[in-house]
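haha ok so turns out i had the wrong file open the whole time. this is the CORRECT one, sorry everyone. sequence first:
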Amino acid sequence: MTRTSFRLALSAAVSASALLAGAASAQTAPQPTPRDDVSVIDEVVVTGTRTPNRSRLDTLSPVDVVTSEDLQNRGTTELAAALAQAVPSLTFQRPSVVDGTDSIRPATLRGLSPDQTLVLVNGTRRHASALVNVNGSVGRGSAAVDLNTIPTGALDRIEVLRDGASAQYGSDAIAGVVNLRLREASSGGGATFTAGQYYTTVDTARAGGRDVEDGTTLTASGWQGFGLGADGFLTLSAEYLQRDPTNRADVDPRVTPNAVTARFGDPEVEQWTVFANAGLPLGHGWEAYGWAGYQDRDSESAAFPRLANNTNNVAAIYSNGFLPKIAINSRDLSLAGGVRGDLGGWQADVNLVYGRNALDFRTEESLNATYGAASPTSFDSGSLIYDQLVLGVDFSRQYEIGLYAPVNVAAGLEARRETYEIQAGQPESWNRGPLGGNTALAGGAQGFVGFQPSNEVDEDRTAVGVYLDVEAPVTEQFTVAGAVRFEDYSDFGNSTTGKVSARYDFTPAFALRGSVSTGFRAPSLQQSYFTSTASVIQNGAVVETGTFPATSPVAVVLGAQPLDAETSTNYTLGAVIRLGDFDLTVDAYQIDIEDQIVLSENINRSFSPQVASLLDPLGIQAARFFLNGVDTTTKGIDVVGRYRLGTEAYGDFNFTVAANFNDVEVTRIPTSSSVLNPVPPLFARSRIETIQQGTPDTKVSGNADWSYGKWGLTARATYYGDVLQPGSTAATDYATGEKTVFDFEGRFQPNERVTVALGVDNAFDEYPDAVPAALNANGVLGFPFYSPFGFNGRFVYARIGLNW
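then structure:
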């Protein structure tokens, strides 16, 4: 969004709030008609506040609530994709041909980096993925939580706090917090079977419309509640997913006749997931609780094609060339246990949470050209492993000190231990074989070079944080809150953050709220120690090129410094309006981030004699590393309006309109080095534009739900602003264009136990603008993979739901 359009949007939103505020002040708000399901409008939340029984519309900061039913009434069964459809400020892109990020896809909140959003499960910190996004996708350089490791059937609801919350929850909560609340059931159960497929017409730049049917997706999920003792519960959930790949590549002009040689699209996936959540009263006001989850995911995406005449093809193995595949087996484990109850008038909660993500890489249907005809075609390319152990101790208590309502005081600590490991692949996946002296041949497995023994790391760190949180209703209308947190890390130092929030209810129908906070994000172990190199021939000698830790000898000689924490300052100001069954929230925000951690450009020995003199003694041709130094300012507005209408003659209607207007500006980039003079580019134009324009500046979603007896219908339209996929110069940029995607679902419930649904996502087969032929010499990229709604077209599905 341009600054002019941003100011116009801000003015419009403020004006609308003022007009509605005037209307609200001039009348007594009508009370909603009592209904059993009124909680759908005013849900009680636990994220962003430690005061009990605080509703979504009573909070001091904006919180979205997405229920399990919201997640279910759509075609996708991926949690991240469903959440992005439900929360306008959240974006889930579907990158392709970017190695591991094809399979472990990150989500972004308010256009910020994926690792600047903290993810919780039942209020406790969720572990990140072991993957570092090192290629050209949105979120390059980040190691984020993989939301798709948790099945939607295991969830009761999701709460999304759209405000900085480092002082309340610790590192990573710069953009906000996503809190996944697991289902708690002591009886009953349900099962869902979903089958869908893309039926689409693909119009790429070179090829006319081609009709495609692919991406067949089958999902079976279920849950069952069991009683534990007199009042306890055990809820078991399971999900199986099988998805065929999609392909939206353009035709390749290098072959005659022109044909599709690449695979640009969603990866092939097969995964199964199990979850358990339990709670058991212990007596005397105490309860034991815990959960466990495990997912095994096999996915396979494609690299760039190697034609028959490619230098690195071996005709004796692939006479027609080959298309390397990048396969990942992801094994994700989480375990948690704790007790909570009354301790001397304080509500105490002590828990221990463990999480582990292990990624095993395989390169399939490939070869190592330096082994010639003796090369394997399948390679073990190594592993990435990350785990986290967190001890949480929390206390809260309400004090009667003569104010309008009790003052809520909370305090606690969080102790965390993290480890990160890289394991090498088999020698043929990275080595130069018998033909390695041929400088025209690339060593290692084509498509994805394996990790070498020199890349192996096994590192760990500890962190301890303590916090104090106070929320005080000063008068019946005025509430203030404050939080302060101190954290100390064994590897980079400490950080102190604070937050002040306030809310004033002018009438039961209108309130203003706002906050000011500071935040931080500690450098992840993945960013601190990730290493990946490939061996090449330089002047007859084997040298390495790749990614090195900032503290490695290679990076140090180039002027790299140990990574420090990112810091932020957040400002929010919003309004809440309630008029019976209608509610509206408008929240403006500004987020200033300093010293964001990014991945540098490759610094090649050919840049200058000085660079060559530094790298040559180390046997390095080119190197890149993580560094601090990017500053950004993000401004935006979130608008969410809901209206519920119940009629006897025509059924019940639920309308929601939600919008996010967002502008990200890079205000500083790293341009200096303590060693190099002149300094090579450390952060390229394409990286700057990805931060500024890689996510939509405007996203507006309108949703209508109707139910009448046995019938139900959902209609949804989502508008996405233009998104840029930048090149090295403006002439090589291309964009998605402004697009609106329509989704429809119809439901029939013949009895209380069975629901049948038919639906179509992207009903009118909308695509981002095709990549111009002039910028797509090999035909791989049919469409921009920066597209916030993907590039697969129309998806038709059927679902059967059972409950008992």
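The chain has one domain: 3-803.
again sry for the mixup
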